[in-house]
Structures are given as structure tokens and as C-alpha cells.
Amino acid sequence: MSVDLDKYFARIGWDGGRAPTLDTLRSLQHAHVLGIPFENIDVVVGTVPSLDLTDLEAKLVAGSRGGYCFEQNTLFADVLEQLGYGVTRYTGRVRVGARPGEIRPRTHLVLGIEVPGGGEGPGG
């Protein structure tokens, strides 16, 4: 199952071209960040959020809710892969506020994006 691109684009208010270029990636990332807020309500109330694409599309796209990094980036990765970008998923640790030598758990998901024809996307 993949996310319905037309519904996703409508959710983030984006109507750009679909060619997998660096400009398209920058525009999509900007629209995604503005269109789908960070939200961790499910975690706070003790619900375990699903990372299944059907569930993510229902929540973040059709349900007009936000999500935390694993939800956001799982959805965004699927969209980018459908458009032809190479996507690598990485887990990361929060280091802000850590004591010297403290190793915190990997609690975040970040994406490395390869733009066809050369280069990596924002943050890459």
C-alpha cells in the first residue's frame, strides 16, 4: 500500500511538479512541515501510534491530524519514494540536555534523501 499522492498533496496545499528534483524536494519538505504539524498526543495519552501506511494516511492526511517524527517521516518517505527519490531511514538520539558520556536511546527517525541525477536533499 502506498499513500494516495493526490490526497497527500491536497492535505499539504502543494501543487508543484512531480519530477524528483532538488527544487521539488525543497518545496515538498517546506509544504509538509507547514501542512502537517508535529504532534505526540497519542504517546502522551498512552496509545501506541501505528506506523502502517494505511493508518498514517487515515490519521495525518484524511484525519487532518499531526504526528511525531516516526509517523511524519514514514509518510514523507513513502511519498518521496513514489516520486523517484532514494530514501534511507536513520534512527537518531537526542543529545540536547544529555550529560557528558550519556548515551540516550534512539528515539527519532530522520531521512537521508538522494536526488536522482546527483546530490542529496536538505540535511543530507
Short description:
By secondary structure, the protein is of the alpha+beta class. 41% of the residues lie in helices and 14% in strands.
Description:
This protein has 124 residues and is α+β, with helices and mostly antiparallel strands. It has one domain: Arylamine N-acetyltransferase fold. It is 41% helix and 14% strand. It has 5 helices and 2 strands; from the N terminus they run αααααββ. The chain has a two-stranded antiparallel sheet. The protein is globular, with a radius of gyration of 15 Å. It starts with a helix and ends in a 10-residue tail after the last strand. The mean pLDDT is 93.
User: Rg from C-alpha positions?
Assistant: 15 Å
Question: Shape, please?
Answer: globular
The first-level CATH class is given as Alpha Beta
CATH homologous superfamily title: Arylamine N-acetyltransferase
Share of helix, binned: 40-55%
Q: Could you tell me the number of beta strands?
A: 2
Q: Tell me the count of domains.
A: 1
CA-CA gap between termini: 27 Å
